[in-house]
Amino acid sequence: MGIFVNPGNASFTEALNSKIYVDKSGLISVVNQRIKTQQKYICVSRPRRFGKSLNLGMLSAYYSKGCDSRELFDNLEIFGDKAYEEHLNRYNVIYLNMQDFLSTSKSVEEMISVLTESLMIDFEDCFPDVKLYPRLGLVYNLKRIYESTKKNTVDKDNKTVTEYEPFIFLIDEWDCVMRENMDNKDAQKTYLDFIRNLLKDQTYVALAYMTGILPIKKYGTHSALNMFDEYSMLDSRPLQNYTGFTGEEVKSLCDAYCVDYESMKAWYDGYELNGTELYCPRSVLAAIEKKSFSNYWTQTETYEALAKYIAMNFDGLHETIEKLLAGQEQPVDTRTFSNDMVTFANKDDILTLLIHLGYLGYRSDKKTAYIPNKEINDEYVASMRAKGLWKETIDAVLKSKQLLTDTLAGKADVVADCIRRVHEQNSSILNYNNEQSLRFIVLIAYYYAREQYNTIQQLPAGEGFADIVFIPKPFIDANAYPPMVVELKWNKTADAAIAQIKNKKYPDALQGYNKMLLVGITYDKDSKEHESVIENVVI
Questions:
Q1: DSSP code string of 44-56
Q2: DSSP secondary structure code for residue 198 in this structure
Q3: DSSP letter assigned to residue 297
Q4: Is the pLDDT of residue 23 over 90?
Q5: Mean of the pLDDT values across residues 470-482?
Q6: What's the half-sphere exposure (Cβ side, CA atoms, 13 Å) at 361?
Q7: Structural domain 391-538, CATH architecture
Q8: How far apart (Å, rounded) are the C-alpha atoms in residues 399 and 407?
Q9: Is 381 helix (H, G, I), strand (E, B) or coil?
Q10: Are 242 and 55 in contact (CB under 8 A)?
């Protein structure tokens, strides 16, 4: 057993001994099917704190010949898999965290040199009977070790079969060089060439499983790692359930630890991968441990990380971010993204990067981006406020709590004046004179309402579609925060908006409430006046 070669299972044992452990061993069953096949190259990219490293520790404990992990896995899901025994602790494993090597090196060349020397030392300890030649490099010595494992056996048909013991490579933070040398193309190419030469088309590779934040295909025109199948925040089939907590897993955790599931959903739900809802494990576990729902994202990223990118106002990015903040999904073309953090040709490249970093969710069926949950919503507001970005929008967000209070109190004139001010302050980035603009303004103005309400646009209701409906969240007192049906009108009276709500029977879609608010908001194109009427309906 070495430090990097055939490591033990201490890391995974620690995870199992933790207060909360969610079984992700089903991943092993999927990975087993790839061993010694052309699909043996796997790269999983996720934002920070999504459980990537934990999975690598689990894979290492399962495959490594440097330990006996039977007792660790015999009570997990993988135990029932038909290939469980075949692969358990049967492989020479090389487990590398690239960030560890990079952080102690002054250049990529030095990093590769230190990594190579470290592995050679482990080779000497783990394979003492093999004559090694350090000056001939890592690949040559891996081939020597592989050849030394050659065994001839006789199969059931009495035929001689030659077998070898190949390596499984587990690589964490594979993309750290790309992220920390984002402007140094030569360093990136040197690193990619090293990984390619180490892994591609090498017979000693039974499996290569890498994790990082960014996908790997397109660093300029250099496609050194095109042998990898990628499983990212854009498309992760069939691995979508294994990195991050699923909705079912979070529900079970909430039940087990007496935590309100609906509150957990409001704060942290929202990522979607191929139809599977995902949560960031770090946020869920922190909320359970602290018995408090808060923003734990800032413990993994900084305000600057987000502000840096949204400040790049490529071809209308400002307006797109505003609409995302208002709760609207926005179309995004992810195909042009170069998979680095500096090459941006348009706003879609920025949005795609934010998807990979976890600042946006992505619906692959509709090809749209959205802000996934309250935690990330708050991160946008905090980042923009700290960096002085888009002061008009932030002003509207900060005043949205008072607007909701005034609406619930029936202060129609105050509500109309607030909507007018938000409309005027944000007119520079919007087409001021259309109903879509008014809808966006209302959604921004009622930003705070999303703490208490689920917001639905164009809700099928009665004999038509209600413009905006605010439905109290399950854990909210509906008497204090009753449902609100909001109708928007252009060049018509607010009374006409209320009349449409009643005539079209929009309230019929809301059953089981004691009362609701009918809110009409209108805008006059010529006078630029806003009008509001609020009716409190007791059911």
A1: EE--TTSSHHHHH
A2: H
A3: G
A4: yes
A5: 94
A6: 29
A7: 3-Layer(aba) Sandwich (3.40)
A8: 13
A9: helix
A10: yes
| Rounded Cα distance, 375 and 267, in Å | 6
**Token pair listed for 282:** 């770090």
| Residue 473, token pair as written in the block | 């969240």
- Residue among 465, 468, 406 at smallest CA distance from 442: 468
Cα–Cα distance measured from residue 101 to residue 495, given in angstroms and rounded to the nearest whole number = 68
The answer to whether the beta carbons of residues 375 and 297 sit under 8 Å apart is yes
The token duo for 300 is 């993994």
Give CA–CA dist 174/427, Å, rounded.
Answer: 44
Asked whether the beta carbons of 121 and 127 are under 8 A apart, the reply is no
Q: Please report which residue ranges of 166-280 form alpha helices under DSSP H.
A: 176-180, 185-199, 247-256, 261-268
CB count within 10 Å of CB 340 equals: 21
CATH topology (fold) of 10-231: Rossmann fold (3.40.50)
Element (H, E) at 276: strand 276-279
| Omega of the bond leading into 128 within 30 degrees of 0 (cis) | no
| Tokens linked to 59 | 């894979």
The per-residue pLDDT for range 245-290, each reduced to its tens digit, is 999 999 999 999 999 999 999 999 989 998 899 999 999 999 999 9
Q: What is the DSSP string of 515-539?
A: EEEEEEEEE-TTT--EEEEEEEEE-
The single-letter code of the amino acid at 73 is F
Which distant-in-sequence residues (6+ apart) come within 8 Å of 9 by Cβ? 60, 61, 64, 67, 69, 72
Which residues on adjacent β-strands are paired with residue 486? 468, 519
Structure tokens at 62: 């399962």
Delimit the domains of the chain by residue range: 10-231, 245-386, 391-538
Closest Cα to residue 32, out of 2, 5, 58? 58
CB 505 within 8 A of CB 535: no
DSSP letter, residue 298: G
Nearest partner of 219 among 196, 190, 188, 194, judged by Cα: 188
Instruction: Tell me which residue of 245, 384, 244 sits closest to 311, measured CA to CA.
Output: 384
Contact partners, residue 66, CB within 8 Å, separation at least 6 = 1, 2, 5, 6, 7, 8, 93, 126
151: tokens are 């065994």
Pairing of strands 229-231, 151-154: unpaired
Residue 518: Cβ-neighbour burial (10 angstroms; 0-12, 13-18, 19+): buried
Instruction: Give the rounded distance of the alpha carbon of 150 from its chain centre.
Output: 43
- Per-residue model confidence (pLDDT) at position 67: 96
Dump strand ranges (E) for 350-452.
361-363, 368-370
The answer on pLDDT for 17 being more than 90 is yes
Contacts of residue 64, Cβ cutoff 8 Å, sequence gap at least 6: 6, 7, 8, 9, 89, 91, 93, 95
- Dist CA 285 CA 305 (whole Å): 23
Task: Give the amino acid at 423.
Answer: H
Q: Where is pLDDT greater, at 336 or 431?
A: 336
Separation between Cα atoms, residue 348 and residue 232, nearest integer Å: 17
Q: Is the pTM of this model over 0.85?
A: yes
